[in-house]
Design a protein that fits this description.
heterodimer; A: 245 residues; mainly alpha; 2 domains; 12 helices; 74% helix; 0% strand; B: 115 residues; 4 helices; flat
Chain lengths: 245, 115
């Protein structure tokens, strides 16, 4: 990412940046999160999982695919260690996400505690929005901004979970299809917006193209090949293109 | 259906089977990634892998969807996302415009096809 150095050097107190982060959370991705967690709330209601613990999963896990695997596994009567393993495999994708955004989530003084707290907010939305907004902020703004943004988005998602649980079901098929499309649609648009370098575009294309080709492989192998394999190919391709220039 | 359980039991399951297996990756990333500086080669590789992984997750949601979206033909799902990207590029790079265009195409098509 070609991050331009921060242009404005006005210094503010941490709460100012915290509220800036909260304000930036009022966005299309927040609406999408609300809608996605509406669906999750409906699932909780459908399988009879207690609402309080369901909302706690949004707060603590904060990764919708992992939450769906957890609830789906419990509903299907899957052995508990197998559920934990499946959740762990699905959440592995968070590791490269956190590594790549973490350099922008540090203040001028490094603190392991705050780095861990900020990392908790990283899932698809905070990763995409963080990579876009954080590089433009001065160092001392990054931690409070991330806290404001992350807490607001988790709050909105908890509201969605409760709302979905409460209104559960009873929508016609074409509305449900529209709700289910929100996540892949909005994330595709967000990724197109975030793509800056040739490597970004190559990685986006590699993931989209390799996934359908590896779809029928067992045990999460499809994600490993299209993600790690595709990303590595994109990285090498991007380097070669840069060298030519 | 899940056998009836108390909030306390359910919370324990959420922590052991959901929170811990997820948070371990975030924690590892912070500890292992503390030495990764922005702009380094490792940083660029990790970013490429994260991007490809997310693209792959999106592709899986489109090519092997769940529930009502599975009733919609693949061509309409892909067409709606393509229309969304076009909408984004044509209407002042607005994410909102892109999402609205994509949704109109999908919901309109699904309604028309009696999904």
């Amino acid at each position: 990412m070609n991050a331009p150095p921060s242009l404005h050097h006005a210094h503010h107190a941490p709460p100012v940046y915290f509220f800036q982060g909260m304000r930036k959370a009022v966005s299309v991705p927040a609406l999408v999160l609300f809608a996605s967690y509406l669906g999750f709330g409906a699932v909780l209601h459908g399988v009879g999982f207690p609402l309080g613990a369901g909302v706690a999963s949004t707060l603590l896990v904060w990764a919708l695919p992992a939450q769906l695997i957890l609830i789906g596994g419990l509903a299907a009567g899957t052995a508990l260690p197998a559920i934990a393993l499946a959740v762990g495999l699905s959440s592995m994708r968070l590791l490269p996400m956190v590594v790549s955004v973490a350099p922008y989530m540090r203040g001028p003084r490094r603190s392991l505690f705050w780095e861990l707290v900020c990392a908790h907010f990283v899932a698809m939305t905070v990763w995409l929005e963080g990579l876009r907004m954080l590089p433009h902020l001065p160092g001392e703004a990054r931690v409070p901004f991330t806290l404001g943004l992350g807490l607001s988005l988790i709050g909105v998602s908890c509201l969605g979970t409760v709302a979905g649980y409460t209104v559960a079901g009873e929508v016609p098929g074409w509305v449900a299809a529209g709700l289910l499309l929100l996540t892949p649609l909005s994330f595709t648009v967000l990724m197109v917006r975030n793509a800056v370098s040739a490597t970004d575009w190559l990685a986006l294309a590699a993931g989209l193209i390799l996934m359908p080709l590896t779809l029928h492989l067992e045990g999460g192998l499809d994600l490993m090949i299209s993600g790690i394999g595709g990303g590595t190919l994109a990285f090498i391709g991007g380097r070669l293109l840069e060298r030519r220039r | 259906m899940i056998a009836p359980m108390s909030e306390g039991t359910a919370l324990l399951l959420v922590i052991l089977l959901g929170f811990l297996p997820t948070e371990v990756w975030r924690t590892l990333a912070v500890i292992a990634g503390r030495r990764v500086e922005e702009g380094s080669a490792v940083f660029h590789w990790v970013r490429a892998v994260a991007t490809a992984l997310l693209a792959a997750v999106i592709a899986r949601l489109l090519f092997a969807p769940a529930g009502a979206l599975a009733e919609v033909p693949l061509a309409l799902r892909l067409g709606a996302v393509a229309a969304g990207v076009m909408g984004f590029l044509l209407v002042r790079r607005s994410v909102f415009a892109g999402v609205v265009v994509g949704e109109i195409v999908l919901i309109g098509g699904a309604y028309f096809l009696h999904v």
